[in-house]
């Protein structure tokens, strides 16, 4: 937002920032702002389109797919579990209890328990005394074997180690130490020479290149990268405001150019014209069409009746056939004659 307030005096550079940072910041921010504004506009347009698609297409489609998934997978699986697998499992559990558990309990109670008690009595009364006797015999035999092994093996071995192996081992160790010191001295000399060779030929030039070339270039690149990152964030926020302003302006332009004229045209022109056309043209035409259709149906009905009468003759009282009457004389009760009466006393 520094570009929007040019009248404000520039703030002092923070500690650690030199003229390089001040010289790099403004061009980097300008370039990044020019590059980021179109990207932010496209991003906001895609976000609006994505929300529109989500609200109008993806969310109803997801609900339909969820309902279809429930209807196709969940409900059949629940019914299978509830009405097939659970009763089948209960039946298997009852069958396993009857065929396995109860026989096993009976076998343990009536067979294994008496056998175990008998085996415990045999162990306590028979095997334990025999074991004690064998243990005493074995202890005596072990003591004799230990004394014999001490006299025949341990004492000669100790003498051999003390008077033969130990002096020979000390001599070998002394020789090995001297040889190791000699090898270490030679290796130290060779290592020192290689160290100075590597230090003079590789380390000192590499250190000079690092201090004189790479470190300054790295500092410059770090400053440029930091300023580019800050400029990107600044430009992204500014592009957001620009995108919001452009979106509102486009919305208002669309409303003024298309929506309001269409609404005014619909309310002020099309609706009255439609009412006039409906009342003056369509409704009379509809009434005339209905009357003409009714007259055509009546004419067709009379033509079919005349044709049927001409071909097959008169069939009075036929079920499902309309009765034709003379339109000038009403179809009512017969007129009174001299031989007839309509009173209750004289009616036939």
TrEMBL record:
TM segment ranges: 30-53, 91-112, 133-159, 179-202
Upper taxonomic lineage: Bacteria, Bacillati, Actinomycetota, Actinomycetes, Kitasatosporales
Coiled-coil region(s): none
Start-end of Polar residues biased regions: 339-348
Highest rank taxon of the organism: Bacteria
Residues covered by region (Disordered): 314-348
Biased composition (Basic and acidic residues): 314-334
Protein name (Swiss-Prot/TrEMBL): Integral membrane protein
Organism: Streptomyces heliomycini
Keyword annotations: Membrane, Transmembrane, Transmembrane helix
